[in-house]
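User: Show me a protein chain along with its predicted structure.
Assistant: Here is one chain, sequence first, then structure tokens.
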Amino acid sequence: ILTRDRMLLKNGAVMRGYWVRSTDPVEQAREIISRFDLHRQVKLFRRCPTCNGEIVPVSKEEVYERIPPKTALWLDEYFMCISCRKLYWRGTHYPRIKKKIDAILAGSD
């Protein structure tokens, strides 16, 4: 269990846990990655944020009916969760999110 609640960790039912020291979410991510040496295990955009299913590449033709019309005009690369079938693509938000994650990883050395 990863928690900020010290009392939860003192609970006899909790066998293993870690008290996250930082209150800032970015610092918490850095702390956890560093503490558990997860640098090499971080694989960006491989799991669905909705259901944690694996995200795999799919052809544009395979999912064309589900792509917003304007998006279909300028993107050819799509990804889908194999569990919940949610569709993903590298939209305008992608560079911003990737930059933020890269900064978290760089600061967790």
